Structure formats: structure tokens, C-alpha cells
Amino acid sequence: MLRKAIGRIVPSVPQWATVAVDPAERYVRAELHWEGGHADATRDHTVASLNPLTIATGIDAGTHPLLRYHDSHTGSLLGQLRLRKEGRIAVDRAGVHLYRVEKGEHYCLGWPLRPLTAWRQNRNMLRHRSTNHLNMEPAAAQQLMIAYLPPRPVVLVSLETEGHRNIFPMDLIGPLESSGLFSLALRSSNVSEPTMRTLRRLALSHPPASMKPTVYQLARHHREAVTAWNELSFPLSRSPGFDIPTVASALRIEELTIVHSEAIGSHTFFLCRIVSSDGMGTGAQLHHTAGFHQHRRRRQGMPFPEV
Ligand SMILES: Cc1cc2nc3c(=O)[nH]c(=O)nc-3n(C[C@H](O)[C@H](O)[C@H](O)COP(=O)(O)O)c2cc1C
């Protein structure tokens, strides 16, 4: 009764929003703050593992930095993560710093919608724990959503070698600008993870937002590899250097060599170098952002276009 009454009064805010935005736009600015310093981390932090929730950056931000997310247009603080240094990975002369997320807050919803939304989302996660592919504690999922305040692009990762071929969606990806590296966090149970570690090369297709249904269908290839390329329902083209099948209608194709991989909790963290990057078209790309960010923007009359 009480729950129904609350449901009628208080709007329901989904955990995630799937949005169609220009990949070049910077809607949210990320900054790392530590004692005595701060640095722009907008293109220099990624998620390295979901469990435990770990952030990677090329910036050495001390032992207990704050990662703050601001709306680029208004300057308003949207949310922040409190981090604790966990380790450092050295690759050639570059360093990548790993930070465990200790706490997080966001300011996208007012009272009482903020605590009610978290309560609802946590309750749903616990109810569907067995089928929830995130497989993380509710508090960590709330912190993960804060890391998605900047809309994060979805790409299709493809690889091919004798006896193994695959293409599947990823969004735990991105540049670590000051290190010159690009990272991917892949659940260690992914069927292509062992091949990726040994093959050390892959291609990224940046799909147009209109490909959303196809992209989501390809999620099953996290568990089972592609048997034959012609079983896919969309045209492919070959990447220029590695000759790996990629999405013919992609907005951008990138080829990556893997220079380092290591297990971090639930995920294998891959550090890569981009060896080619070809823009094939312009337009909106599929991105994910936190549902509370989209809710805030809608209330301000400027929601991201949803797909
Ligand atoms: C759009 C999209 C992006 C994804 N990104 C990642 C990723 O970056 N890393 C990862 O390990 N899994 C990623 N996944 C895979 C999911 O976390 C999940 O493992 C997959 O959908 C299979 O789920 P199931 O095992 O519950 O069926 C992604 C899935 C989708 C649909």
C-alpha cells in the first residue's frame, strides 16, 4: 500500500540511460583532486574492474584523491568518488595508477528522490541478484553509476584467429591520455579472454546509435564465440592493418595492440596502444549514462536523445 502510494508520487528513475550522442562532445568534465594538486581527468580515467570497483588513470593523484564530475556547460558539481590508491602498473615508460572506490555521492536528484531512488534500485538489484549480469554489491553499483556521469561510448570489439572469432559490445573502455594507453576491462569469464591475452590484437567498431538492438543482441557473444562471420545479420568490412572483420557502417574503426593484461578481481584489465584510427562517418554513437544524470538533464529541459 505504502509502496504503491510512494510510487504514484515519486517518479521512478532507471539505473541506466542508453543515449545517442556525438562522441566528440564533452558534456561532463572529470577532475582528480589531491592534497596540493588537481588535474583534468576527463580523458584520463576508466573502470578497471567492477568487483572490487576500481578506477584506472595515468595521473598520479596521491593516496586518497577525489574524482569530481562537473557539468561542462554550467560548471555544477554532479557527483564525486572517493578513491584509495591500490597499485601501479608500469608499461614501458608509462605508469597507470589503480584506485579502489571507497565512497560516492551524486547531486543529480534532490531530497527525497535521491535516497528513494537508491533504495528502489538497491532493492531491485538484491531481488534479481542471480540474473543480474553486473554481479556487484548495490553500494558499488551506485558508485559505478557515478562513474557513468560522463556518457560512456559503447564499442564492438572484434578479434579473429585460427579456430576463434568473435565480436561483442564493451563500454568499460577508454583512453588514459597521459600514459598514451587505452584500456579495456573484460570479465575474466568472457569466452574470448584467453585468446585476447595471447593474440594481443583486436579491432574496435564504434557503432551508430541506430545499431542499438544489434549491439545488445551481440552481448551473448561474451559467453559464446561466433561460429562463422556470415551468421551475423549486418555487413562487415576488414580493418586496414590487422584484417579483422569490423562493422561496415561503423562511425570509426580502431586497431589496438595489447601491451599488458592482468586480472583485477572480476575482470581482466587490458592496456593497449591504438595503432590505427579511421573515421568513417559522423553522427550519434551509442553511449550509456546514469539514469539520474538523464533525469536531471530532462528536468533542465535538455535530455540526451534516447535510443
Ligand atoms: C552494451 C554492453 C556493453 C558491455 N560492456 C562490457 C564490458 O565493457 N566488459 C564486460 O566484461 N562485459 C560487458 N558487457 C557484458 C555484460 O556485462 C554481460 O556479461 C553480458 O551481457 C552477458 O550477460 P549474461 O552472462 O548475464 O547473459 C556489455 C554488455 C552490453 C550489452
Count of the separate structural domains: 2
> What's the CATH topology name of the largest domain?
Pnp Oxidase, Chain A
Looking across the biggest beta sheet, what order are the strands in? 3-2-6-7-8-5-4
In the predicted model, the low-confidence regions spanning at least 5 consecutive residues are none
Any idea what the radius of gyration is? 19 Å
CATH architecture of the largest domain: Roll
Under CATH at level 1, the class of the largest domain stands as: Mainly Beta
Shape: globular
Please tally the β strands and state the result. Answer: 19
Give the SSE order as H and E letters: HEEEEEEEEHHEEEEEHEHEEEEEH
Specify the helix fraction band: 10-25%
Q: Could you explain how this protein is built, in words?
A:
The protein has helices at 2-9, 113-127, 138-147, 193-199, 212-217, 291-299; strands at 16-21, 28-34, 37-40, 46-50, 53-57, 66-71, 77-91, 94-106, 152-153, 155-161, 164-170, 173-176, 181-187, 201-206, 236-238, 245-247, 252-264, 267-279, 285-290. It has 6 helices and 19 strands. Helices cover 18% and strands 43% of the residues. By secondary structure, it is an alpha+beta fold. It is globular and about 60 Å long. The structure holds flavin mononucleotide. Residues 133, 154, 169-172, 185-187, 190, 215-216, 219, 222-223 line the site of flavin mononucleotide. This is Flavin reductase like domain-containing protein.
